[in-house]
Amino acid sequence: MMIVAEGLILLGALFLLVSSLGTFRFRDVYNRLHAASISTSGGSLLTGFGLSLLASLHKGTLVLRPLLILLVVFFLSPVSSHVLAQAAYRAGVPLAPETVQDDLALADLEVSETPMDDDGGSAAEAEEEETPMAEPVGT
Amino acid sequence: MIPVLDVALVVLAISLAAAVARVLVGPTAADRVVGLELAGVNLLAIMGAWSLRSGHTESFDAMLVLAAISFVGTIAVANYLARGRPIDDDRG
Prior knowledge:
The complex is a heterodimer.
Chain A: H1 2-25, H2 29-59, H3 65-90, H4 103-113, H5 123-138
Helix pairs in contact in A: 1-2, 2-3
Chain B: H1 3-25, H2 29-54, H3 60-83
């Protein structure tokens, strides 16, 4: 049982090491957030289970506090990384030069160019319908 | 006493060093915030492993405080980067 707890702690530490190395090596804020967020969830959960199990074995009673604390991290880390990615994009942090597509910029362009359509069609359909109508009004 | 915990502490120390290096060299402020959040989680794991290794389980309370402060700090800095002020209020 002790072996299981120590193995869980070691596996969680290895998850956190992979996460930190990815954050150090990647080339973009958004790639770094991807590395930092996902394996942090796995690492915190595994470390929490391992710490709780080992403390319970040492004390002889059930110790749930480390598991509870790292569960808080498990639930709050995606929230903070999501907010941070949105903030970085709004603050104008540049993407890596290898990026091939920026869907958020395309979505902003479509929303700002086409007015709201009431018939529920997609933005491309609305644009095709709008352009022949708009020319006689403009001229 | 428990050599596996020592190995885990060494691994976590390397991980913390990588996160702090990202804080030091990060070109933008968002990079530094990512590194700080990751360093906070690494510190949580280090504090837990160290408290089990030394037998002082009182530092679990410090772990809880560190988790809460790290989350609130990340949210505040993200709001500051996006909107120019750390806490949103409706006064404009």
